[in-house]
Amino acid sequence: MKTSIVARKYSEKDSKVIAAALKKIQQESSIITPRLVVQSAEDEASPLHKYFEWNNTKAAERYREWQARSLIISVYLVDSEDENSVPVRAFVNLKPEQDDEFIPDQGYVFTPSIASKSNYQAQVLEYAKSQLVGWRNKFGAYKEFFGVVNEIDKVA
């Protein structure tokens, strides 16, 4: 099997730069951590430097937004009357149902309200399928999961 390293969300050129720099850090340290990557990128000569926000005010604001996302996705709905119930995320990340300049491109919707919106239902199903395909791609080569992979292929 021939493999290549790809950094999603980046151009092919940037992907190669990022992958090479991360591999170098890992080779020098035997393991790679976010802290090591940031420390390496702090040097303006580092090929990774341009991929970081170095303005501390902007970086702090983005970090707080990341913390807000973490809070939102930490909330689950649980059936308190059924001890075997599976917790379900209370908020799902979706695109708004209508185009409106005051509505952001994407945000979170309270899960029970999704049932009445066909556009939201379709987005959730598409996301679920993409997660199944991602799982398949990540673990599908393991013979222990061949049965699961076949079922995923039927759905996706």
Radius of gyration, in angstroms, nearest whole number: 20 Å
Low-confidence parts, pLDDT < 50 over ≥5 residues?
none
Strand share of the residues?
A: 5-15%
* Straight-line N-to-C gap: 24 Å
Mean pLDDT: 88
Shape: extended
Query: What is the strand tally?
Result: 4
Main beta-sheet annotation: 2 strands, antiparallel
Proportion of helical residues = 40-55%
Biggest sheet strand order reads 1-2
Continuous helix count: 5
Order of helices and strands: HHHEEEEHH
* Quaternary state of the chains: single chain
Global structural class: mainly alpha
Give your account of this protein's structure.
There is one protein chain. With 156 residues, this protein is mostly helical. It has a domain at 1-52. It has 5 helices and 4 strands, in the order αααββββαα. It has helices at residues 12-29, 34-42, 56-73, 118-139, 146-155; strands at 76-77, 88-89, 91-94, 107-110. It has a two-stranded antiparallel sheet with strand order 1-2. Strands 3-4 form a two-stranded antiparallel sheet. Helix 4 runs antiparallel to helix 5. The radius of gyration is 20 Å and the shape is extended.
